[in-house]
Amino acid sequence: MIKQPLLLSKVNVVYAIVVGVMAVLPFVLDSRTMTILLTQFCIFAILAMSYDILLGYTGIISFGHAMFFGIGAYTTAIMLSDYGPSIGIFAVSIVVGIVLSAIISVISGALTLRLKSHFYAMFTLAISGLFLVLAEKWRTVTKGNDGFTFRAPELFRERLYFYFLVLICLVVVFILLKRIVASPFGKVLVAIRENEQRTRSLGYKTLGYKIIASVIAGAVASLAGSLYAISLRFVNTSVMTMDITLDALMMTIIGGVGTLIGPIIGAGVIEFAQHYLSGLAREYPIFERWIIFFGILYILAVIFFPRGIVGTVSLRYHEWKLKKGQKTKASVKLREKEIQR
Amino acid sequence: MELLISLTINGLATGMLIFLLAAGLTLIFGLMDVLNFAHGGLFVWGAYTGVFTYAWSNSFLVGIIVAILTGLVLGFITEKLIIKPVYGNHVQQILITLGFMLVLQEMIKVVFGPNGVPVKVPSYLAGSWQIGDLTIIKYRIFIIVVGFALFGVLYFILNRTKIGLVVRAGVMNREMTQALGINIKRVFLIVFMCGAALAALGGMLMAPYSGVVYAEMGMEYAILGFIVVVIGGMGSFQGSLLAAILVGLAGSFMAYYVPFLSVAVNMILMASVLIFRPQGLFTVAKG
Questions:
Q1: Taking 60 as the threshold, does the pLDDT of residue A332 lie above it?
Q2: Would the keyword Cell membrane be found if you checked this record's keyword annotation (chain A) (predicted)?
């Protein structure tokens, strides 16, 4: 387990500075493309964080995360186009999306989470495939593959305001999830990841914990989907595709599993790299298939850097501290581990 | 009556194709607890290489042979490069094979182009027989025959030969088999390559059946393969045949009688198996 550094206040100051910089960035850059890119980054950071609750903290692999994202996106889009573009409807649609996602999480979790991890991965893959087909076939509601445009609430038609909303959501979700993983409940999740049988023998009903973790992840992913729909003011079946799940997966793995800051960094890396690589694609057609590079990077990361960017950096940092003889909580832990060996 | 027969034939043909995919998956899983999410990638690579050599050489048989060879080679590469480094770690295995699936699928688009490729049924398998009101498409019968023949061959190998004995023993109890002096990893490599070749062959046979190959078909059929493996029981070879036929038949009948349920029918089957019999219809006695 990767411990956060001891001096929490120091870290918090850094976080506050980062958020401040991000809030000022659109004014400094003053470009529409950058504002949109930053908005996308925040949305996918929320999605990746929700994914990490499952993968990094509980050790559950879900291949159906796009489903929750898609449910959020479609709920918001459909409600806004049916009942008019007001902020109230938008807020209600977020809640509806979250509730729907929670119901589906509970069902699929209750069915498969008591079995081996393969089953949940397979089942979520299959059920999200089902939802994709549903979105394609249920044309009266979803307009199928063509999708439909809708009007966003007045306030959020201004890109900048919407960016602030997304940034606030990112911060709130980050703090909430941080509280959750630091709580006794979060500790049980980590215990399940490390050794489920032992956790169960300690008297925890692990199935319930796992289901709640999947509900939290699904709900947050649905929120990300709702925001995504507003950012595009358009929705089609691409929000339900495997690509979304893979994005979340790669962001989490490359950024660092088992931390919350890791997926955010991963989201940044992938969103910006994607942007520049598709720019390069105009000159070198091979970059149109940029996903291959990420795929290979991802495979290498799974084999060689299973901790991702954040995990590897923090490990190196603590090793370095250890060498210098400085004691932090984490470096003491490292030393204990070395002695045990 | 005619309708029932032709629906049954459709279902059986689809079921056989899924079986080719699922047979490898289930044995790979049974032997080493590896769930290969890249299996669909092998399926689609078999389809594409086979289709292109078929178009180039004008011989369906050459296409099939090339597809099988592709499967063997890719199976070897996958096992050595992708499965081996993370052997024993479930989470990493699932993650890495899915990543490889993605790479395989995108590589298809780079090598063969992003658009679907139409495929014709070879002349000697094209057309249909007319019996009264009943139209039987020859190529479907061909698939069913090939599927059952392959099942027979595999069944014979698994139950009557030395290597089959080793594989079955490995599925039942890996440690014990190893303790008896059998290099289970080499057996696993062979099974993995054969499973990959079966998937590739399935892809190639699929191509004229659906009339078009496209990069995403790997994932679509892999999902069906997973459903079959869950229903049939992970590690059970016979189970995968039965479940594949069940899924194929359910799909074809539902598509005709209750079209709106046809998408969901496989999920319903899988969910009910998971609720009432999570170990699958057939279970392998794990000792």
A1: no
A2: yes
Is residue A195 in a domain? Answer: yes
Residue A122 lies in a domain: yes
Return the percentage of chain B with pLDDT > 70, whole number. Answer: 98
Q: Hey, what domains does chain B have and what are their CATH numbers?
A: 2-276 (1.10.3470)
Q: Are A240 and A77 in contact (CB under 8 A)?
A: no
Contacts of B243 in chain A (CB under 8 A): none
For B4-38, write each residue's pLDDT tens digit.
Answer: 888 899 899 999 989 988 988 888 887 777 888 89
Could you tell me which of B221, B207, B197 has the C-alpha nearest to residue B66? B197
Query: How many angstroms separate the CA atoms of A141 and A79, rounded?
Result: 11
- pLDDT-based confidence at A286, cuts 50/70/90? low
The ipTM is 0.78
For A256-265, letters b (16+ CB in 10 Å) and e give bbbbbbbbbb
Residue A174 lies in a domain: yes
**pLDDT for the residue A146:** 80
Contact B102 A295 (CB under 8 A): yes
Please answer whether residues B222 and B39 qualify as being in contact, where contact means their C-beta atoms are separated by less than 8 angstroms. Answer: yes
Tokens of A285: 């057609």
Residue A161 lies in a domain: yes
Which of the residue ranges A119-133, B83-97, B272-286 would you say has the lowest mean pLDDT?
Answer: B272-286
Give 3-state DSSP helix, strand, coil % of chain A, rounded to 5. 80, 0, 15
A293, B83 Cβ separation under 8 angstroms: no
B152 at the A interface (CB within 8 A)?
no
Model confidence at A118: pLDDT above 80:
no
**Best of B29, B89, B108, B223 to mutate (most A CBs within 10 Å, chain A):** B223
pLDDT at A14 exceeding the cut of 50: yes
Q: Name the 3-class secondary structure at B118.
A: strand
For chain A, how many structural domains are there in total?
A: 1
Residue B135 has pLDDT above 90, yes or no: no
Q: Which of A123, A133, A302 sits opposite B92 (nearest CB)?
A: A302
Give the residue from A275, A217, A183 showing the smallest Cα distance to A71. Answer: A217
B34 CA: distance to closest CA in chain A (Å)? 9
A243: left (phi over 0), alpha (psi -120 to 50) or beta: alpha
Which residues 190-229 in chain B show a CB within 8 A of chain A? Answer: 219-220, 223, 226-227, 229
Q: How far apart are the C-alpha atoms of B97 and B83, rounded to whole Å?
A: 7
Rg value, chain B, Cα: 19
The Cα B37–Cα A117 span in angstroms is: 13
Mean pLDDT of chain B: 86
Give residue A30's pLDDT: 75
Name the pLDDT band for A341 (thresholds 50, 70, 90): very low
CA dist., res. B19 & res. B240, Å (int) = 6
> What CATH number does the domain containing A274 carry?
1.10.3470
Q: What is the pLDDT of residues B184-203, one digit of tens each?
A: 888 889 889 999 999 999 99
Minimal C-alpha gap between B126 and chain A (Å)? 31
Domain encompassing residue A223: 19-305
A-B C-beta contacts closer than 8 Å: 93
Longest Cα–Cα distance in chain B? 61
Q: From CA A19, how far away is CA A59, in angstroms rounded?
A: 29
